[in-house]
Structure formats: structure tokens, C-alpha cells
Write a structure and sequence with these properties.
Number of strands of chain B: 10
Shape of chain B: elongated
CATH architecture of the largest domain in chain B: Up-down Bundle
Number of domains of chain A: 2
Strand content of chain B: 5-15%
Number of helices of chain A: 21
Structural class of chain B: alpha/beta
CATH class of the largest domain in chain A: Mainly Alpha
CATH class of the largest domain in chain B: Mainly Alpha
Oligomer: heterodimer
CATH topology of the largest domain in chain B: ABC transporter transmembrane region fold
Strand order of the largest sheet of chain A: 6-9-10-3-11-12
Helix content of chain A: 55-70%
Number of domains of chain B: 3
Largest sheet of chain A: 6 strands, mixed
Distance between the termini of chain A: 46 Å
Radius of gyration of chain B: 36 Å
CATH architecture of the largest domain in chain A: Up-down Bundle
Strand order of the largest sheet of chain B: 6-7-8-3-9-10
Largest sheet of chain B: 6 strands, mixed
Strand content of chain A: 5-15%
């Protein structure tokens, strides 16, 4: 069903990978103390891990082999070992906890940045990107970052471990230590081969997983339609096919891991152990070999190889992180910003005169939706936009609200370029009533107030009364504190619209913009709203789109749009007298009511 | 451990797979005993300085054999057990999906999308971990732990073994205590993640409103507050999670200390050799992983258990729509008799419908008008069996609609809701949604009937154009008309238009009503609308107010009745007349 391009569908070039890694690492900077502390703890832990077997070796070779251990010496070594263990536990805790907290804070910063960036992006981005995928970037992709940073830790732990055990082995017996080192190229080859081979399988698996979750999300959102049309079986079967496909790729991944991951490291370890013991064995035929040395060496060899498994295991996390990072940065780097004001913009909107001068506009920069639009709305006047669906009515509002940047021409408010107004000023003085009245999770009051804490409960009540939304709000359990569930599903679209009216009214805008606002309201409610609107329109400039021409007859100027052009303009009477398109439309509507 | 019981059905179903996995684990554990024994023996032989080339070779071959055996058996159990976990996740996901398909409106009012998604991703992951890491650590700790201890007793010394493993029960205590705290913190962390999900989902969906009111910064501040809370909650998780390894180390440290003290006593008194002590220490090292594993095991099980309960709770919710055992399978057709004495939405104080009775003979059209919230949509919800608990009866063709199977009932109904949800697929697939095997011709016919064919031809890829999520790239009117096409393609016995023409202009509305009239001459239709012109030709019109029938009759009768309808009509008429005279 859905066909979103998955980031897992392509392999990311090496250079880009490192670039992403570098940028992700920058998020760890503010938490230097946590990450640094964790790394220091990891280094100390590696030292303790070498020191403990060494302690035992010394004890065995110096005292046990020669049968010279007194009770005091035994207790002394035991105490030392206990002390070492306590240190080990402390380092383990700080390594894990500090690193986890550093990651947690770092990834939450990425979340904050993403969310802030979303609010900077223009509407075009949201038109083109499915909501589900945006949400997944902000929550799921960022969540993988914590594992990604953990790769760094496991690489460092591996490195510390390899270096510390090698150094100790070298001190104990240089020749045999070098022999163990000879296994390093083999080890590196195994790591390289695994990462090369597994990355393809892994990418495929992740691609399937994202497809699976996209389908799941859409099926939940569209459940009403699925059920009404009895398509549960078909949709579930489609889902099952994807589910099966995912299982197949995942099983392939498990097989690769079983063949090439920790078992192979273990095999290499066994070979190294055989080599070391062979060397010691042959050595013992000519010279004395202390028991403790053999014991310590076997432990070091194991320390040398063991962390590799962890490191290779985390390679997939590395890939996850890079892919998540690439998607996160694609949002953060997105330049499709919402239009902004000119630098230093500081104009204040006082009268509310609107003028369009030869404005043209294309959503994609190529196909023009508006051509050469010019009109003037003087303070307090109403300009109505009329035309068939797709004629460009909404686009005029979209560019005026600065949701999209227009192309040629000028938009002036109070004879000043609209770009000279700070965005906050425009948002405060321009009130838009949208066709889709979106409801937020919260209460009725919070839906009218939105986040503006300056608005008092009293103002909310007054606004609701003003648009006569109080009639149904008073009947709700809890009235203004009545809970609003996801999407406001418990309200009819008319009720939602009334709330959204109150939302606009309460901000007391200078200019009113109505985008097909009356389309979903029944006649009686609409009459109520028309009355309310008439009152708010007093002293306010209004730009209105309406389907029923009867509602805009008193407009000072009516613009008839067709395919992005203004084809007729004038007052209701003037337009009727023209006997043109408006006249036809009007005849049709009145004819229908006969 | 309760979680293993809860997953018992799965382990029984996958018995063979898990038997192979456990057998391989057993073999790995057995082979694992060889190296420490060999090393100990080698040390002793070297100490006595009587190591010969033959013996050395024997030792080395034994080690080599152990290494290769480990590789093979490890491959075996990994495939079996991890594969089992993946299969379990898939099985549960399928089950969950089917459950979602079956649940009713109440369920979806209670659970938000983000929440359901979290169940289907995070919780399933935690459960599959039980069938993978959980099973592994359980058997690994029992088998490896057990065989290692046995080897310690037989190859070294039973007194040393008993003393050395004395602190180990502490591991269980620690795992239990920490596990409980972690479980609690983890549940909160999951909930916090869900909240972040919901918040983001909502902000993205409502982005235009937020932009309109210039509330971007405030919304971001709200989000950041949620993030702060999430950090605080995760701090607890990380704290308890971070305690597992150190505590295990401390307990293992005690084991080593006991070994040093008592082991050296045994060596000094020549009861064991130094080689045996080396073996013993190697065995203790082999015990570290199983003991860590017990700590992890509880961790995995706690998480899995919490998630299983959450999923189980979700799966236990039943749809209030119950299909009668002998449900009628033949598609519904005939007269519709709607007799509702009273209906209230779950958890609502006031009744949504009171004494709404009507009979709609097959082939006729019913109009429903009334103010916002008067109960128009509620009637449809009951007809579509979104809610089943009401006082009254609804019959379709002389049979109670509750006696039909849902297929028989809903296949007969084409519903066009107020909010049009379109799927992210092609225009054609959206239209033939209800009848996927329909060919292009039928799709185009339906599109023509709903007056959207010409619009579609203007799209870049025509009928193959992809519809964006929620159809963002389409206008409201186009969405409505696609939704109508989707409903009429099956020529349903009953077509319901729930304010489905609100976003189309008058000319298009007229065309659609005209088409429907011609194409559906013998079929039943219900139209709810605000524009009275949409329903004026209906055979009966109901005027609803606050869930009651205020007026009823044909257009002419209602005008004669001179009530709400007549008043509204006069108003709309007057507007039209005034307009017609050109007097604004």
C-alpha cells in the first residue's frame, strides 16, 4: 500500500557516513563530563581487569608454588583482591550510568532540535511528508542514538582491553604475546568481513521493518473506513504478507550473526589458546614455567578476544545510528523554511489595509497557481474570494498568512511590505479560521486558549459565548474543562468549528481570514455564526472564502477566480449586472433552492 | 518466571525448535568444561616437569576439539532460539493486528494511535526478548552453571566448591530486588515515550493551527517540558540498570576471595595441586557469565512480563459488537425500520437519541436535517453497528441488524463519513477499496458517478496518482468526492451520505445528486445535510433536535407544517430570492 522511500533502501557512501557520525558526536559535547567520566571509568576498569589476574598470578607463583604462604599473606592477598573487586564494581557502575545519562541527555537534545526545526519548516514540507514518518524521526530514530553512542563505548572498552591485556602479556612473556598479536589481522579480517556481509542483510531487514510499521500506523488511523467497508481480511492479509517478509529477512540476519559473529570470535580465541599453551608446553620442556603465568596468560588471551564480540555486535547499532542520523539530519538540514520576515522587521499593524500587487505563486516553484493577483481591501472592508475548487482561493490565503512564500509581486499591509512585519505581529493580528478545525488533546478551554497563558478563563468564556459555542459546551461534563480526546472525535464537525471560531475570536485579531469556514455548519448554526462574524467584522478587515454566495453579498469587493486568475471583480450588484461567471454561479445556487 | 508460563503455549507449539536449541546449549556447556580441565592438567604436568610431546599434543587436540565443537553448537542454538524469538514476535504482531481490525469505536476512543503503535513495537520487542535472551539465559545459567559446579566438585574439591558458591544465592536476591525497582521505572519510561509520541503526532497533525496562532515556540516549550520529564524518568531506569553488573561483580568477588583463602589452604596442605586451583579459578570464571545471566534474566523477564500484561490487557478488550452465533450470512436488503427509544454514548450523561423512529422502504430516500449535534451522525453509527447497546431495535429487511453477520450488514451499506480518511495508495485503489477486484472501468464509472473523474484525469498520473497521507494534496471537495466514489462502487443496498457534500460547490453537488438518483433508482439512500436543497427530493425528511425528532414529513408536508424546516427553508429561500432580485 504505502510507498515511502525508506532510508534503508540505499547504502550510504562512506564519506557521508563519517560526516553523519561527526555531526552526531557533536551532540555529545555538552555532556563531556558524563561521557568523559564514563570513558575514564572504562579505562580504569580495564586496568583493574588486568590487575586482578596478575594479583592471583603473583600469589600463586611467589607463595603457593613454593608453599610459603602464611595466613597473613593469604589474608593480605584476599583483602587486596576484595579491594580490587570493589574498585571494579565502582568503575562498572560509573561507566554504565554516566554513559547512559550522557546518551540520554544527548538524544533528548536531538529531539528538542528536531521539534524546534519542525516549527521552522514551511507548510510545503508537511504537505509532502506523512505525519507518521515525521513522528518516527522525532521519537524512534532519536531513541536509536543511545545505542549508537554505545558503539563508541564498546569500541573503547575493546581497545582498552586489547591494549591492556597485550601490554601485560608482553611484560610477562614478549614472544608469546607477539604470537597472540599475530591473530589480530585474522580478527580484523573477521570484523571487516562480518560488517561487509551483514550490512546488506541488515539494511534489507530494516527496510521491511519500516514498511511494516508504516502499514500498521495507517491501518490504525484508517480503521473506521476499513471496518465500514469490511476490508479487515484483505488489509490483514496484506499486513501478514509484509510481516512474513520481515520475519524472513530477520531470520536471514540471525543466520549471518550465528555464522559470523560471536561464535567465530570464540573459535579464534580457541586457536589462540591452543597456540599459547603449545608455546608454554614446548617451553616447559626446556625451562621452568610457573603455574600462575599460564593461568594469567589464559585470562589475558580471553580478555584480548572477548570484547570483540561486543564490538561486532554493536556494529548493527552503528548502522542504525548512521541511518537514523541521516534521516534526522535530512530534517534538520531541510531548507524549506516557513517564509520569514526581513531582517530587522519591526512594523506594527494598526489599520489593517491589505493590498495585493501583481502577486504570483507556485507551490513547487514551477507550476503557477496564482497569476498576477491584485486587489485592495481597505480597513474594515470585506473582500470575498469566489471560484470553483482549485481556482486559487485557498492559495491567496496561504500566501497572505505566510504559510508559503509567494513569487513575483508584493503584498502590502497598511502600505508596508508584509515582510517588514515580524512574524509574531502578523500571527497576533491576522486571525485565520481553517476549514479543518483541528482539536488538540486537552480540554475545551485549552483548545480555545492554545498555549497563550495571557488569555483568562473569562475571556475564553466570552469568546465561546460570542460564537454561541457555549450552548453545547455548557452541556458537556465539566464544561470548559471537559476533556478533548485525540482529534476531538467526540465532537461533531460543526461543534469543532465553533470551538475553532472561539479560538480565533479570543485573540482579537485586526484582520480576519475565513477559509471556507462556513461549509460544515448547518443553516441555523451558520446563521448564528454569520451574526457573530458580522459583529467581529466591525472594525476588522476580512478576507473570506465561502461556497454559498448568499453569505458574501455584503462584501465590499468580490473576486471571482478561475485557474489562478481574477476573472471578474466588483460588488455583488456590479457582478450580477455583468451577467458573467458570477451571475451564472449565483443563478445556479438560487435556482437550486427553488 | 510467570512470563514463561504465560508463553507456555508458544514453547509447546515450537517444542522441536526449542528442544534443539537447549540440546545445543547443553553440548556447548559440556564442551566448555574441557579447557579448564586441560589447562589445569597441563599446569600440573609442567610443574612436575614430565610433559612429553605426545601428551602436549593430546592436550592441544582436546582444546581444538572443544573450540570447534563450541562453534558448531553455538551456531545451532543461536539459530534455533533467536529464530524462535523472531517468530514469536511475528505471531503476536499478527494477533494484535487482527485484534485491531476487530475492535470497535469505544476501543479507539480509549487508545490513541501512538499508544497502540507503542504496544505493537516496544512491547512486542520486550516479549520476544523473553523467548530469545530469556530462554537462553535461563538454560545457559542452569546448564552451564550446573555442569560447571559438577566439574568443580569432581575435578577439584567438593568442600572448596560448596564454600565458594555460598554467596551465589545473593545473586538471586539482588536480581529480584533490583528487578522490581527496574520494572517499575521501566513502565514509567515506556509511558513517557508514549506521551512524547502522542505529543509529536498531534503537533504535526495540527501544524497549521499552531502556525496560524503563532504558537510554535510555546508548543516547543511544551514539548521540551515533556522531554525534561522523560530524562528524569529515564535517569531512574539507568540507575537501576547500571547497578546490575557492579552488584554481580561484588558477589563474584566474594567467591574469588573465598577461593583464595580456602583454596590456598588446600594447596598448602597438599590436598589439591596448584593445577587444580588454576582449573578451579577457570571454572569460577566460567560461572561469571551464568551468574550475570541470572541478573539479566530477571531484567528481561520483568520487562517481558510487563509488556505481556499490557498486550494481554489490550487483547482481552472485547468489541461491544457481538455477532450472534447463528448470524445471518445473506446480504441485508429490504426496508429499514429504525426504532430507538433511547441511546447514550458510553460514559455520557445525556442521551444522544430519544424516541427516534422511522421506516424507510427499500428504494426510497430519507433526508435528515438538524442543527449541529442534533444526532444525525449518531443514527448512522447505530446503523453501522459501531455501538450495540441501546434501548430499541433496528431492522433491515424485517431482521434485527444484530442478527446479521457484520459482513452481511456492512456489505450492504456504503457509508461516506464527514471526515474523509484516504489511504496512502493510488487514487484507483482508494476508490476500489471496498471491492478490490474491480477493474479500471468500474473505478472510472464510480468516479464519474461522484463527479471526480475529470479532476482525476488532471492529476499527474491520473488514476495511478498516489494519495498523500490523509490526502493532503487533495482539496476538501476532491476528498469528499473520492470518498463517495469509494462508497458507490459496490452499488450498496443502502448509501449513507453524512454531510458528505459540504465541501463541494453547488454545481457539483447538483451533478452528484442527479447521478445518484439515476444510478440508484431501486436502491435506498439516506442523506444528512445542512443545505436543505440536498434533501428536498427525499421521500421523507426528519428534522432532529437534541436527539429528538422535531418534525417529519415530505418537503411539501414540512413546509405546510410551518415549523423549523419551513423557517429554515424560508430563510434559505429568502436569501436566494433576495439574491435573485439583486438586492444585497
Amino acid at each position: 500500500m504505502p510507498k515511502y522511500e525508506s532510508a534503508w533502501a540505499r547504502s550510504i557512501p562512506m564519506k557521508e557516513q563519517w560526516h553523519i557520525v561527526g555531526r552526531l558526536m557533536r551532540y555529545t559535547k555538552p555532556y563531556k563530563r558524563q561521557f568523559g567520566g564514563a570513558i575514564v571509568a572504562a579505562a580504569l576498569l580495564a586496568s583493574v581487569n588486568v590487575a586482578l589476574p596478575w594479583l592471583l598470578q603473583e600469589f600463586m607463583d611467589r607463595y603457593l608454588t613454593h608453599q610459603t604462604a602464611t595466613t597473613q599473606i593469604v589474608i593480605g592477598f584476599a583483602a587486596l583482591y576484595a579491594f580490587g573487586t570493589i574498585l571494579k564494581a565502582l568503575f562498572q557502575f560509573f561507566q554504565a550510568f554516566l554513559f547512559a545519562m550522557g546518551s540520554e541527555r544527548g538524544l533528548e537534545d536531538v529531539r528538542r532540535d528536531l521539534f524546534a526545526q519542525l516549527h521552522k519548516l514551511g507548510m510545503r514540507y508537511f504537505d509532502q511528508t506523512p505525519a507518521g514518518s515525521i513522528v518516527s524521526r522525532v521519537t524512534n530514530d532519536t531513541a536509536t542514538l543511545s545505542d549508537f553512542w554505545n558503539v563508541l563505548l564498546s569500541v573503547l572498552v575493546g581497545l582498552f582491553s586489547v591494549v591492556s591485556s597485550f601490554v601485560t602479556m608482553y611484560v610477562v612473556n614478549a614472544k608469546i604475546a607477539l604470537m597472540v598479536l599475530a591473530f589480530l589481522p585474522l580478527l580484523l579480517f573477521a570484523i571487516w568481513y562480518y560488517s561487509h556481509y551483514s550490512s546488506k542483510v541488515y539494511r534489507h531487514m530494516r527496510e521491511k521493518l519500516s514498511e511494516l510499521n508504516t502499514k500498521l500506523n495507517e491501518s490504525i488511523e484508517g480503521i473506521g473506513i476499513i471496518q465500514q467497508f469490511r476490508q479487515e481480511n484483505r488489509i490483514a492479509q496484506e499486513f501478514e504478507a509484509t510481516n512474513q517478509e520481515y520475519l524472513r529477512t530477520r531470520t536471514a540476519m540471525i543466520r549471518v550473526n550465528s555464522l559470523l559473529l560471536s561464535p567465530i570470535i570464540n573459535l579464534l580465541y580457541s586457536f589462540a589458546l591452543v597456540a599459547v599453551l603449545a608455546a608454554f608446553g614446548i617451553m616447559s620442556m626446556h625451562a621452568f614455567v610457573a603455574a600462575g603465568v599460564v593461568y594469567a596468560f589464559t585470562t589475558y588471551v580471553s580478555n584480548f578476544f572477548n570484547p570483540m564480540t561486543n564490538m561486532m555486535d554493536s556494529l548493527s547499532n552503528f548502522q542504525d545510528g548512521v541511518v537514523a542520523g541521516s534521516r534526522i539530519f535530512r530534517i534538520l538540514d531541510n531548507q524549506e523554511f516557513a517564509p520569514t520576515s526581513n531582517p530587522g522587521a519591526s512594523a506594527t499593524l494598526t489599520h489593517g489595509k491589505i493590498e495585493f500587487r501583481h502577486v504570483s505563486f507556485a507551490y513547487d516553484g514551477k507550476h503557477e497557481i496564482l497569476h498576477d493577483i491584485s486587489f485592495v481591501a481597505n480597513p474594515g472592508e470585506t473582500v470575498a474570494l469566489v471560484g470553483h475548487t482549485g481556482s486559487g482561493k485557498s492559495s491567496i490565503i496561504n500566501v497572505m498568512m505566510r504559510f508559503y512564500e509567494f513569487g513575483q509581486g508584493e503584498i502590502l499591509i497598511d502600505d508596508v511590505d508584509i515582510r517588514e512585519y515580524p512574524m509574531a505581529e502578523l500571527r497576533a493580528k491576522l486571525g485565520l479560521v481553517l476549514q479543518d478545525s483541528f482539536m488538540f488533546y486537552g480540554t475545551v478551554a485549552s483548545n480555545i486558549r492554545l498555549f497563550n497563558e495571557d488569555i483568562s478563563d473569562d475571556q475564553i468564556k466570552k469568546a465561546a459565548e460570542f460564537v454561541q459555542a457555549d450552548r453545547f459546551i455548557d452541556q458537556l461534563p465539566g464544561q470548559y474543562d471537559a476533556k478533548v480526546i485525540e482529534g476531538g472525535a467526540q465532537f461533531s464537525s460543526g461543534e469543532r468549528q465553533l470551538i475553532s471560531f472561539a479560538r480565533t475570536v479570543v485573540t482579537d485579531p485586526k484582520i480576519l481570514v475565513l477559509d471556507e469556514a462556513t461549509a460544515n455548519i448547518d443553516t441555523e448554526t451558520e446563521a448564528v455564526i454569520q451574526e457573530g462574524l458580522k459583529r467581529i467584522r466591525q472594525g476588522r478587515t476580512t478576507i473570506a472564502i465561502a461556497h454559498r454566495l448568499s453569505t458574501i453579498k455584503d462584501a465590499n469587493l468580490i473576486l471571482v477566480l478561475d485557474a489562478g486568475h481574477i476573472v471578474e471583480r466588483g460588488t455583488h450588484d456590479e457582478l450580477l449586472a455583468q451577467h458573467g461567471r458570477y451571475y451564472d454561479m449565483y443563478r445556479l445556487q438560487t435556482g437550486m433552492s427553488d | 518466571m510467570g512470563i514463561f508460563k504465560k508463553l507456555g503455549w508458544y514453547f509447546r507449539q515450537e517444542f522441536k525448535r526449542y528442544a534443539i536449541g537447549v540440546l545445543c546449549l547443553l553440548l556447548v556447556a559440556s564442551v566448555n568444561l574441557i579447557p579448564p580441565k586441560v589447562i589445569g592438567a597441563l599446569v600440573d604436568t609442567m610443574a612436575k616437569r614430565n610433559l612429553t610431546m605426545d601428551r602436549l599434543l593430546l592436550f592441544l587436540v582436546a582444546l581444538l576439539f572443544a573450540g570447534i565443537g563450541q562453534y558448531l553448537f553455538r551456531y545451532g542454538w543461536r539459530n534455533a532460539i533467536w529464530g524462535g524469538a523472531a517468530k514469536l514476535e511475528k505471531t503476536l504482531r499478527t494477533r494484535l493486528f487482527w485484534h485491531f481490525m476487530k475492535m470497535d469505536a469505544t476501543f479507539y476512543q480509549k487508545h490513541r494511535t501512538g499508544d497502540l503503535m507503542a504496544h505493537a513495537t516496544n512491547d512486542l520487542n520486550a516479549i520476544q526478548n523473553v523467548a530469545g535472551a530469556g530462554i537462553l539465559t535461563l538454560f545457559d545459567s542452569v546448564i552451564t552453571g550446573g555442569t560447571t559446579i559438577i566439574a568443580m566438585i569432581f575435578f577439584v574439591d567438593w568442600r572448596l566448591t560448596v564454600l565458594a558458591i555460598l554467596p551465589m544465592p545473593l545473586l538471586a536476591v539482588m536480581a529480584r530486588q533490583l528487578g522490581m525497582r527496574l520494572h517499575h521505572a521501566f513502565g514509567k519510561a515506556q509511558a513517557a515515550f508514549s506521551r512524547l509520541n502522542d505529543k509529536t503526532q498531534e503537533s504535526v497533525s495540527g501544524i497549521k493551527v499552531i502556525k496560524t496562532f503563532g504558537q510554535g515556540q510555546e508548543d516547543t516549550a511544551d514539548f521540551n517540558q515533556l522531554v525534561d520529564k522523560t530524562v528524569a524518568i529515564n535517569k531512574r531506569v539507568n540507575f537501576f540498570d547500571g547497578l546490575f553488573d557492579p552488584t554481580t561483580s561484588l558477589i563474584m568477588g566474594m567467591v574469588y576471595v573465598i577461593t583464595i583463602i580456602y583454596g590456598s589452604h588446600l594447596v598448602m596442605t597438599s590436598q589439591i595441586t596448584i593445577g587444580q586451583l588454576v582449573s578451579f579459578i577457570a571454572y569460577v570464571a566460567a560461572l561469571v557469565w551464568p551468574m550475570f545471566a541470572i541478573g539479566r534474566l530477571f531484567n528481561v523477564l520483568e520487562r517481558g512480563n510487563a509488556s505481556y500484561d499490557r498486550i494481554d490487557k489490550l487483547l482481552a478488550e472485547t468489541s461491544s459488537i457481538q455477532i450472534a452465533p447463528q448470524a445471518i450470512q445473506t446480504p441485508a436488503h429490504g426496508d429499514i425500520r429504525f426504532k430507538i427509544n433511547q441511546f447514550s454514548y458510553p460514559d455520557a450523561d445525556t442521551a444522544a437519541l430519544v424516541n427516534v423512529h422511522f421506516t424507510l422502504p427499500a428504494g426510497k430516500t430519507l433526508g435528515i436535517v438538524g442543527r449541529v449535534g442534533a444526532g444525525k451522525s449518531t443514527i448512522f453509527k447505530l446503523l453501522l453497528r459501531e455501538f450495540d447497546r441501546y434501548d430499541g431495535e433496528i431492522e433491515f429487511g424485517d431482521i434485527n441488524i444484530r442478527d446479521y453477520s457484520l459482513d452481511a450488514l456492512l456489505d450492504a451499506i456504503g457509508y461516506v463519513p464527514q471526515d474523509n480518511f484516504l489511504f496512502s495508495t493510488t487514487v484507483a485503489d482508494n476508490i476500489r477499496f471496498a471491492s478490490y477486484d474491480k477493474d479500471a472501468q468500474a473505478v472510472e464509472a464510480a468516479a464519474s458517478e461522484s463527479a471526480v473523474h475529470d479532476d482525476i484525469l488532471k492529476f499527474t498520473a491520473g488514476y495511478q496518482t498516489m494519495v498523500g497521507e490523509r490526502g493532503v494534496s487533495l482539496s476538501g471537495g476532491q476528498k469528499q468526492r473520492l470518498a463517495i466514489a469509494r462508497a458507490v462502487i459496490t452499488s450498496p443496498e443502502l448509501l449513507i451520505l453524512d454531510d458528505a457534500l459540504s465541501a463541494v460547490d453547488a454545481k457539483t453537488e447538483a451533478a452528484i445528486l442527479h447521478n445518484l438518483h439515476n444510478q440508484r433508482a431501486d436502491k435506498t439512500t439516506i442523506i444528512a445535510a445542512h443545505r436543505l436543497s440536498s434533501v428536498m427530493h427525499a421521500d421523507e425528511i426528519l428534522v432532529l433536535e437534541d436527539g429528538h425528532v422535531l418534525e417529519r414529513g415530505t418537503h411539501t408536508q414540512l413546509l405546510a407544517h410551518d415549523g423549523w424546516y419551513a423557517k429554515m427553508w424560508a430563510k434559505q429561500e429568502l436569501e436566494a430570492k433576495l439574491g435573485g432580485d439583486g438586492n444585497a
